[in-house]
Amino acid sequence: MFSKNTGIMLYVEDVAAERDFWQAIGFEIFNDAEMMGFATFDMKPHADSSLTFTVYANDFIRQVSPDVIDMKPSVLFETDDIEALQARVAAVTDTASQVNQEPFPNFNFANPSGHYFAVKGN
Is 90 exceeded by the pLDDT of residue 115? Predict the structure, then answer.
């Protein structure tokens, strides 16, 4: 049910400074965007990597997901069937959130150790 893509979300104070830094040390930068008025971008350590880092502003995360702001970084999984995966996770843990539509289809859950993970629908 999980897809082959995995992402790590990094929450930062200054998205532009982070972009400049990671690009300077050789990361591939792509998907520069604005989400709900906040700058964001994706990056990979190598163009062929299946691991993506998405950088978000702390203020954006405080607005859309305040419970996870202090948990750095977060792992972001992707799925082609977010409703089915959310139901499967919710059957195992009472920490699974409902599927949210903003800023994109998503839900989160904690593992038994209390670490939160996010899932993004494709």
Answer: no
Rounded CA separation 82/70 (Å): 25
Banded pLDDT at 68 (limits 50, 70, 90): confident
Residues in CB range of 6: below 8 A, 6 or more apart: 50, 51, 52, 75, 76, 77, 78
Fold of the domain built from segment(s) 6-121:
2,3-Dihydroxybiphenyl 1,2-Dioxygenase; domain 1 (3.10.180)
Q: Which of 20-24, 50-54, 106-110 has the lowest mean pLDDT?
A: 20-24
- What's the CA gap between 9 and 15, in Å, rounded? 12
Alpha carbons 39 and 24: distance in angstroms, whole number: 19
Q: In what order do the strands lie in the sheet with 116-121?
A: 28-35, 38-44, 51-57, 6-12, 74-79, 116-121, 106-110
* Strand 116-121 to 74-79 pairing: parallel
